[in-house]
Amino acid sequence: MDSDEHKRVLDPEHDTAALKALTHPLRIQLLGLLRQDGPATASELAARTGESSASTSYHLRVLAKYAFIAEAEHRDGRERRWRALHTLTSWSNESMEATEAGRAFVGLARRRQIEHLERSLARYEADLAAGRLGQEWVEPSGITDLMPRLTAASLTELFDTVAGKLEELTARDADDPRAEHVVFVAAGLPIAAHEHADPDPEDREAQHRDPAGEDRHPADHHPADHHLEDRKTKDRGITARDTGDLNP
Questions:
Q1: Among 124, 186, 203, 222, which is least packed by CB within 10 angstroms?
Q2: Measured between alpha carbons, how far is 115 from 111 in angstroms, rounded to an integer?
């Protein structure tokens, strides 16, 4: 799955123009649709995105100019069909961090991945409700939001392990008629600890009073949850390395 012929690796030093081309939100969306649903015309993509055919046609030509897509086999001679040349776009976070353009691209790409997750959740719920997905998908599907304590080396090892297992399972299920496209997103974002000053005695007392002024025991305070995990329903899923893989 991650072999060279299926991955477009971007280098901020040599692919400046390609990076700039891919920072347009519609172009990322069009590329993602071609990767997800296969070859399509500008008109078909316009209908899916709510854009005009002229707009999608222009942005498709830009993607083709920088070798993200290419013309596909036509059903007839009336309109071009386009296909994605790779299954994902990848890069080195460290290399991207070294340039302003690289940082801007990675920030945009990460947010597009989050938007893709939101759209995919809505589509999953609609497909399940309409019977387009069988009940066998209910139990294994889900999202897990965890906050483990890991070193940088351990986080790298985690992603490498997940990537290797995913490649193995994808190859195993390639010809299985029961297989469906699965949106798999993983995030590993270290967060520095906040330093909290010790509050004044009066402030500490005020923290244990409700708006009406009544005393409340400190045990009544519940800090915001740091992770979500529905243990009863086994809602789980390791979400995608926004490190460097983009498959919108």
A1: 222
A2: 6
At 99, the amino acid letter reads T
SS3 9: strand
Calpha distance 222→206 (Å, rounded)? 16
Q: Is 147 exposed, middle or buried (0-12, 13-18, 19+ CB in 10 A)?
A: exposed
Provide the whole-model pTM: 0.69
Phi first, then psi: give them for residue 70, nearest 5 degrees: -150, 165
DSSP code string of 170-209:
HHHHTT-TT-------------PPPP-PPPPHHHHHHHTB
DSSP 112: H
Distance, CA of 53 to CA of 75 (rounded, Å): 18
